[in-house]
Each structure stands twice: as C-alpha cells, then as structure tokens.
Amino acid sequence: MRIVALAAAVLAAAGVAGGAQPRKDGLPVYVTGYAAWHKVNSKPIVGGSAAHQGVKNVYASRLKAGRRYPTGAIVLKTGSPPGKRWLSLVATMRRTAGTANGGWRWEEFTRTSPTARFAKVAFPASGCAACHMQAKANDYVFTRR
After folding, report:
1. Which of 26, 51, 118, 135 is the 20 to 30 A CA-CA neighbour of 110?
2. Looking at the domain 2-138, which fold is it?
3. How far is residue 43's CA from residue 36's CA, in Å, rounded to a whole number?
4. Residue 61 near residue 86 (C-beta atoms within 8 A)
C-alpha cells in the first residue's frame, strides 16, 4: 500500500495525475524543465500547418525505444508567432498506457502576449488525433530534422 501511495505522490508531483495545479505561467507542471529535454529537430521549424504557425521546436522527455516513444514520454512543441521571439504556443503529447491513438493524449496551451498567462485551448483532443494520424508511421509525431 505504501508503494501505491508513493507512486501516486510521484506522479502527482510530476503533473501526470489529473488535477495537478498549473504553474504560475498557466502551463501544467509536467512541462517543467522541457528546455533540457532532448531536442527532436536540429534547427527551428518555420511555417507549418494551419494549427501551428510560426517558428517551432520539438522536445521529448524520453528517447524513442525502437520506433516508439515509451509509456510516460512527453513530446512538447513550442511555437512563437511569425516574426516574434516570445512563446505563444505549448502543445503536448503524453504517452499513456491506452490503446487509442497509440496511447497519446494531446493538450495545447496558448497566450496572446509575452506577459500573458497560458490558457488551455478548449477543443476535443480528437482534433489533434485526426491530424496526427497522418504521422502514424512516425509514432504520431511530426518533425523535420
């Protein structure tokens, strides 16, 4: 029983459990330290889909195990508006033990100015899944190296 309680406490501290309090900037605690994670793209990604314009970088909390990211991995994309140097977008994919969409859960957070708090975008995750299905062969992750 102690192990279960300890595991729940660790997951909650990492922001994996539901209901985790957001950081002061409005982002979930599970993204803390992402800039030190493995950077997936070698240079910034410019342009992109209608869903993610501007200049983007992609980070992964854990490396792929073969062709797939392991359960618990987080892939995070940051985005800056065209011509700006501040982050307006943080989009996340978190691999869970689920089977739908390869076990990925998506969330997106945006803000309108460099001093504003991030707010979670309210749209169904199925919108993310529908687009990311195009990258199913790459474990649902879009990248340009």
Report:
1. 135
2. Chalcone isomerase (3.50.70)
3. 16
4. no
Longest dimension (CA), the chain: 53
Q: 33-82, pLDDT tens digit by residue?
A: 999 999 999 999 888 776 788 899 999 999 998 999 999 999 999 999 98
Q: Which of 125, 119, 116, 120 is nearest to 96 (CA)?
A: 125
